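Figure 2 data, in text form.
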Amino acid sequence: MEATRIDIPDHAPHVLVVDDDRRLRELLARFLTENGYRVTAAASAAEARAKAGNFVFDALVLDVMMPGETGFEYARSLREHSQVPILMLTARADASDRVTGLEIGADDYLPKPFEPRELLLRIQGLLRRQERPDRGRAEVAFGPFVFHLQRGELRKGNEPVRLTSREKEFLRTLAVRAGSPVGRSELAPEGSEEGARSVDVQINRLRQKIEEDPSNPLYLQTVRGAGYVLHLD
């Protein structure tokens, strides 16, 4: 009996799955295809890099522990020229691995083993962050920076400032409520303690990009017991 062919439209999101486990690659490729995604699979960072030269991907699902170049190393090199959303897969329960991934520039993480449905929801969340329009004013300005709310673009004068999709989401949330504290639980995935830790990592990354002295921030400040606040001019 022949397998049912699934026709995926050309405009469907294209996901690159990078994992050295052949069985997992095939399972994820089949599951994502069944849910309307175009999928390309790679067994290593080198193979992923080669395929990224031929296609434009909307999101990456990237395993951490791979022989040769690890997922961390590939994500770090990718962030030098691309802000494509990255969901990292880790077989370790150690929170430090996930924090490391976020520090490098990954947008989300998922520990193995996981439910395929959860993976799907995480990918959908990353894509929504890239595409979601915001109502109200189009831009906010603070210091030498201008942030376009809908496009998620940050500029310092005439120069663009690169942001990951998670950083864009954080800055958008803070900018929409500029002058008012935003709690960690509102920024953390699922409001977990571990998620709150990742919020601090992302805030520190943002401060490195927008503050002259990140240890003494002028714009993105901590409000004790309340969270973070973005001060505009």
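Caption note: The longest strand covers residues 14-18.
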